[in-house]
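RETRY 2/3 - previous attempt timed out on the joint model. Re-submitting the same 477-residue input unchanged.
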Amino acid sequence: MKYLYYPGCSLEGTAIEYHASTQAVMAALGAELQEIEDWTCCGASAAESVSNLLSRVLPARNLALAERINPGGDILIPCSACYLNLRRVEVEITQEGLLDKLNAALGEEGLSYHGGTRSRHLLDVISNDIRAEVIADRIKRPLTGLRVAPYYGCQCLRPYGTYDDPEQPTSMEPLIKATGAEVHPWTMGAKCCGAGLMTTKKEVALELTGAVLRAARGADCIVTVCPMCQMNLDSYQGQAAKMQGEDLGISVLYLPQFLGLALGLPGGDLRIESNMALTSELRTRLCL
Amino acid sequence: MSAGISAHSKETEESPSWDAIREHIRACMQCGTCTGSCGSSAAMDYTPRQLWRMVQLGLLEEIFASRTFSLCSSCYYCTLRCPRGLHLTEAMHALKRLAAARGFTAKEKGTRFYRSFLETARRYGRIREMELMTRYFLVMKDPLLPFGFAPLGVKLLRKGKISPQMPRLSGPGKLDAICRKVEELEAGS
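RETRY 2/3 succeeded.
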C-alpha cells in the first residue's frame, strides 16, 4: 500500500505526536507514505470565512502537487479540517467554471489540477485498507481490560464521511476491539468539541469540551483522529475542568498512538510524552 | 455543495452574495432541526432557525448585529440534518464573509483571527502557531489578551510543540502570487 501524505500545519506543531505516530504505525503495518513535497496550508476554517475562492485555491494547490507526483493516487490526511478542505475541492470541481478559476490562480506557480486525486482520512485508510483483522493479528501488547471512548468529532465525518455513519459513527470500534480493549458506550463520539471557538469564544468552547469529557467518565482514555479535537480535549482539559468546577481528568490519545502501543511500538516513536493530560493510572497500566 | 454562495470585497446592499444567501434560504420551512442540532445555539442571541427567518425577511441590520453566525463552529450537523437539504454551514460562512466585507465585524476576535491566520499562511505557506498568535495579539491591541493563552503556551513550548523562534512580520511571502491572483479573480467576478 502506497499513499501520498499530506500532514498539514498542525502536525508540524501542536500535533507533532500525531505526525510521529501516524508515520510509525503506517510503517509498522506495511504502508508506504510519500510526503507531498512543498505542501502548503489548506486554509483550515479561516479561509472560508474571508474568501470563498481562496478557500478552494489553497487546498487545490496541494491537490495539484499530489496529482503531479502520482495521478490517480490516494492522499492520506490525518487532520479532519485538512481532509474536509481537500476533499471538498475534489467534490466541487464538477461545478461549472470552478476548475478554470482554480487553474487560473494555480497557473501563477506553474501548477494545474485536473481532478485526478482521491483524498482520504486516516481513519478511513486504517479501517478499510489496513483493516481491524490485520491489526488484531499483529498485537504485541494486548490492551485487555482498558475501556476506550472513541471520539470522532465533526469534520472527518461531516459533510464527507462516506466511509462511516455521520450521525452514529462506529468505524473506530473494531479497531479498539482488535487491541483487546473494550469500547466505552456513549453518544458523544460525533459531537462538536467547540473547535476553533476555543481561541475566539472560549467560554462557549469550554462548555462543549467539558460535556465530551464528562460523558467519557468511566473510560480509561479517549481516542481522537483530529488535531483540533485533541487540542481541546487534551490541552484545554484543565481549563474546562476549572470552569465546570469538577474533575474531568482523562487521558487523550491519538488513534495511531493508541494502536501503536498495542502493536508494541516504543512510546518514544509515538511521542507519548507530548500529550498533556496522561493520567498516572494509564501510565501505570501501560508501563509508560 | 451549492455553487451560489460566495462573497467578495465589493459588497453593496444588492450584492450577489446577499442575494445568493437569501435565494438559498428561501426553501427553509422553519422546522428548527438546525437549532436542535447546534451545539452553540444556547450561546447565540438568535437561534439558527430565527436567523434564517431574518434572512428570509431581509433584516440585514439585525442579522449583522447578532453574534449567531460568529458562534458557528462548522460541525455540519445542521447541514447533515436539514430536511430541505440546505447548505446551512456554508450559509453561515457566507454571512461571516459578508459581515466582514461590510465592516460589521471588523473588531470581532473571529474576523481578526481569520485574517491573522491567512496572513501567516500567505507569508510562510504553512501555519506556525507562534507566528499566528503573535500576529493575532498585535492586531487585537489588547495587552491582557496574551495572558489568557500564556500558561498553555509555556506548556506547549516545554513539550516542544511550538517553536520559540520569533517571526518576521513583513516582507514577501510564499503564497503572494496565488493570493494576488485570487483577489484579482474575485474583484472581477
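The radius of gyration of chain B is 19 Å. Closing ticket.
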